[in-house]
Amino acid sequence: MSEEAPKEYLSLRVDDGIAYVCIDVSGQRVNTLSTPMTERFEEVLDELRDTAGLEGVVIHSGKEGNFVVGFDINELQELSQRPEDVRPMIDRGHQMLGRFEELSVPVVAAVDGNCLGGGLELAMACHARIASNNDKTQMGLPEVKLGVIPGLGGTQRLPRLVGLQTGLNMILTGKQVGAKKAKKLGLVDDVVHPGILLQVAAEKARKMYAKGGWQKRPKASIGEVFSNPGEMVNLAAKTPARKLIFNQARETTRKQAGDKYPAPFAAIDVIETGYKDGFDAGLQAEGDAFAKLVKDDVAKNLINLFFMKQEVDKAKPFPWNTKAYPVDKIGVLGAGLMGAGIAQVAAYKGYEVRLKDVDDEGLSWGLNYTKELIDKLVKRKKISAPMGDIMFGRISGTTEYTGFGQADLIIEAVFEDLDLKKSVIKDLEEHTHDEAVIASNTSTIPIKEIASASKNPEMVLGMHFFSPVHKMPLLEIIRHEGTSSKAVATALEVGRDMGKTCIVVNDGSGFFTSRVIGAYINEAGWILQEGARIEDIDRAMKDWGFPVGPMKLVDEVGMDVALKAAKTLQEAFEERWDAPTALKAVAADGRKGKKNKKGFYKYKDGKGKEVDETVYDLLPGGRDRKPVDKEVIQERCWLAMLNECAYCLQEEIAEHPRDIDIGVIFGLGFPPFRGGILRHADSVGLPRVAERMHRLADQFGDRLKPADIIVEKAEKNENFYSE
Ligand code: NAD
Where in the chain is the domain with CATH 3.90.226.10? Predict the structure, then answer.
């Protein structure tokens, strides 16, 4: 046995004619595949080949509720730096799984818990799969999320097992399915209680051995036998239908993700090759595509993002051993869009919620909204109807402060008005206990100012959720100078419990996210004011990778809200924050955006597809717009955003570049394939960034002058990420 492949990866035991291969990577909470694991598998395969009297093999995990979560991402990251080693590694993996397929006895995977990526590819190379009915059992191929494709035969085996359409869908979206769904799809043969999983898997192997014929791999080329009988008729008989499916998949992928992510397109090509030219050709194509993708910047950035997110999700509050206050009950003030959204997510995660508004009208709007969100979950079968009732039962409404005495955390989400927020805090504290943490969901007001109204300012901080709360993954936690570490730890614990990725930032106007998005929209406003067309600005930034353009974003957020934020930011940074008059003029026309169906776009059935040309009548230049270079729009907007991020780093609003990159991607829609705004600036090179910003500042205004930190780093030829 080689040094890198200690026994701790896999163990083998033979009992009554069945060989049990147990995967258990020691020192890790979860099992991952890796080169040492492949080596150990190869040894085990030799042992299996030499063991007489076998009737079957069962592959299972030694970790309860965890089969294999995928290929080791640390190794994947290393491989992206050593492209010459990728192809041999893939070939070796393909061969190893091929040897399992070709064993002289049936191999059954006994799946309990996460069976993802390489884990599912291993399970699919087995002759049968039995899954446990454990809630933790999830199966899927999430590789595209890391900018690569499944590289251990997954692109070939999955469509052959579940049918082309479903297989494509799972591979292109990375979607996971639970055990029951997996059975329905034909991905597993049976679903049983975890307590009898090994026994049922062994019986399955014995039965297959006795019956024979188990070696046949489901095939997909024309004239071969499909595992999915309906598809056999449709596709084997009709090549144009199959072509249509592949072309539709390309079209949908282009629409959903644009053309910035090469992995889904590569996956479609590789699957198509397998259907056209057979399994082995598909496998070869898979290996080639994987080797090409893994060294691409998109994969490098997405893999890096994965690690950054992990670091942020695990980061401890300072000092690291600070304990959070226990939180069972949460009070929410303001049953509007944000308050009700927060109440629903909290109830979903098991908290008892007390929701307060000023009057019955406000309260019932909020309660109805939470009910609608819960009903949607039931409709989409995310939760059962009784579970939905339990969840809604956790939220109680009030127009008084009754019940707030028991709340351990109170989240304030009343209108964005400092005086109102201060008076609400004062009233609230008459009714809460001393260890209650008070969080404001303000988008721009410095927390220090809100906390000044409190008897216990150390218990006050910001918990800035994003809209819609149930969908947006980021939570920005803001501590003012006096916030206690224990309060921060509490917000972090609850935020993570609510499923959010939390960044902790220091206090200031607009903290981090609102400041940065404000600078981006501000620059877009200038470009509009100078004569550009709305659709040109939006298209340019969508082409750059943002999910929506800045003008559309203002319509979504609400022109009134955006303007209020802009005012706060302008007051706070008046020496350098130069605001165009364009946005004010548009708001003065009563255009609030999507919410009053009147904004930069015309709204019909809730959708704003067409620009409202009458907006131009409110702007300098009127309807006589001029073309602006797409690259100039893109550069001005992203560099304005970068500059504000740099100021935030310089002023220690954000303490680590990582928090900034996670913040812009998960909170502001910055394109993930660029790896984060600071990382993107690093890849462009800070000397070049600084030089461009000086030129843009000369041409368009001093607000684009680079922050000192950019200039200093550029002069020293440093990066944001260099230590
Ligand atoms: P909203 O107008 O939808 O809701 C505010 C609610 O607060 C209303 O129902 C109002 O009746 C209620 N309210 C007012 N005074 C109250 C009081 N004294 N006690 C209890 N309730 C009271 O506003 P929203 O969009 O939910 O925003 C709320 C807060 O969240 C604001 O500070 C806003 O800046 C912030 N925020 C909003 C968004 C967003 O996208 N809408 C995103 C992040 C943060």
Answer: 10-295
Look at residues 56, 52, 54, 57 and name the one whose alpha carbon lies nearest to residue 23.
57
Pick the CATH number of 329-508 from 3.40.50.2000, 3.40.50.720, 3.55.40.20, 2.115.10.20: 3.40.50.720
Helix (H) or strand (E) holding 333: strand 329-333
The mean-pLDDT minimum among 39-43, 78-82, 130-134, 185-189 falls in 78-82
* 400 in active site: no
Ligand 1 pocket list (CB less than 6 A): 333-339, 356-358, 362, 413-416, 420, 424, 441-443, 465-467, 557
Residue nearest atom 8 of ligand 1, based on CA coordinates? 336
| Residue whose CA lies nearest to ligand 1 atom number 20 | 357
Query: 681 with 642: CB under 8 angstroms?
Result: yes
Give the Cα separation of 201 and 187 in Å (integer). Answer: 15
Mutation choice for ligand 1 from 401, 411, 414, CB with most ligand atoms inside 8 A: 414
What is the pTM (predicted TM-score) of this model? 0.91
> How far is the centre of ligand 1, averaged over its atoms, from the C-alpha of 339 (Å)?
7
Q: What is the 693 CA–ligand 1 centroid distance (Å)?
A: 37
Q: What CA–CA distance (Å, rounded) separates 371 from 380? A: 14
Per-residue pLDDT tens over the stretch 214-248: 877 665 544 343 444 344 434 444 577 788 899 99
* Atom from ligand 1 closest to the CA of residue 412: 29
- Give the Å distance between the CA of 515 and the centre of ligand 1: 19
**Ligand 1 atom showing the smallest separation from residue 442 Cα:** 32
If you take atom 15 of ligand 1, which residue's CA is the nearest one? 414
Of ligand 1's listed atoms, the one at least distance from the Cα of 335 is: 9
Domain 10-295 fold is 2-enoyl-CoA Hydratase; Chain A, domain 1 (3.90.226)
**pLDDT tens-digit profile of 200-212?**
999 999 999 999 8
Q: Which residue's structure tokens are 């500059």? A: 643
CA distance 25 to 126: 20
Pocket of ligand 1, candidates 332, 344, 358, 411: which has the most ligand atoms within 8 Å of its Cβ, to mutate? 358
| CA dihedral angle for residue 189, residue 193, residue 197, residue 202, rounded to 10 degrees | -60
Residues of the chain with CATH 3.40.50.720: 329-508
Sole residue written with tokens 């989240």: 411
Separation of CA 413 and ligand 1 centre (Å): 5
**Cis ω on the peptide bond leading into residue 218 (within 30° of 0)?**
no
| Beta partners for residue 63, in sequence order | 66
Kindly give the residue spans of alpha helices, DSSP state H, lying in 469-623.
Answer: 485-497, 513-529, 534-544, 550-557, 559-572, 582-588
Residue 574 vs residues 296, 568, 601, 707: alpha-carbon distances, Å: 42, 10, 30, 15
Q: Give the model confidence (pLDDT) of 309-335 as tens digits.
A: 999 999 988 788 899 999 999 999 999
Residue 226 main-chain phi, psi, to 5 deg: -90, 150
Closest to 478 in 3D by CA, of 453, 502, 498 = 502
Q: Which CATH class is domain 514-715?
A: mainly alpha
Q: How far apart are CA 662 and CA 293, in angstroms?
A: 23
At 710, list the tokens. Answer: 């950019």
**331 C-alpha vs ligand 1 centroid, how far in Å?**
14
DSSP 216: P
Name the helix (H) or strand (E) containing 704. none
CA distance 663 to 502: 9
**What's the token pair of residue 400?**
């008084």
From 143, 476, 493, 644, the catalytic residue: 476
